[in-house]
Amino acid sequence: MTLEEMAWQFAEVFEDLGVDSINEMLAKNVPMDTLEFFKTYAEDFGKSAGIEGAALLRLPNLMLIGYILRILEDRLIPDHSDS
Questions:
Q1: For the whole prediction, is pTM greater than 0.70?
Q2: Which of 3, 36, 67, 72 sits between 20 and 30 A of 28, alpha carbons compared?
C-alpha cells in the first residue's frame, strides 16, 4: 500500500465517524498535551487566517489527522540512514 492509498483510506474512515467518535479516538491515541497544543495552535492559526464558524471548529481535528498520518508514515517507512 502506498502512502497516498493509506491517506485516502484513513480519510474515508474518518468520513464515516461522528465528531464524538473522532474525539474519542484522538483522546485514546494522542497524548493530552499534544491535543491541547493542536487545539490552541489551530484556534490561533485559524483566526489569523480568517477561518470562521464550523471550519474553525474542525481545524484542530484536521491538523491532528495530519499529525497521525505523519506518525504512521514514520513508523511504516524504514530508516535507511544507518546503512
A1: no
A2: 3
